[in-house]
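Handout, page 2. Input:
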Amino acid sequence: MKIEKNSQGGTTTIRFIGHFQAEHLGELKKQLEDDGPRLVLDLTEVTLVDVEVVRFLGAREAEGVKIVHCPRYIREWMARERTS
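Output:
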C-alpha cells in the first residue's frame, strides 16, 4: 500500500495505490486528522480491499468525504454494507 497526498486550493486529495486493508487504516486515520474538511479519497489505483476498509470508506463518505475513481466492486460492496 502506498499513499500519496496532494493539497491544492483548500482541498486535500489522498490517493491510494495497491492493496488497501484494515492494517492500513491507522495510517489513513492519521492522514484524515491532519486535513481540513475538504477531503477527497482517490481510489484509482486500489486493487484489493477488505471488509473493514469498505466499512471505513462508507462511513467517511456518509460524513461528507468525497470518494472518486472508486472501482465498481468497491462501490457495490459499500452499498451492500450500508443496507445490512
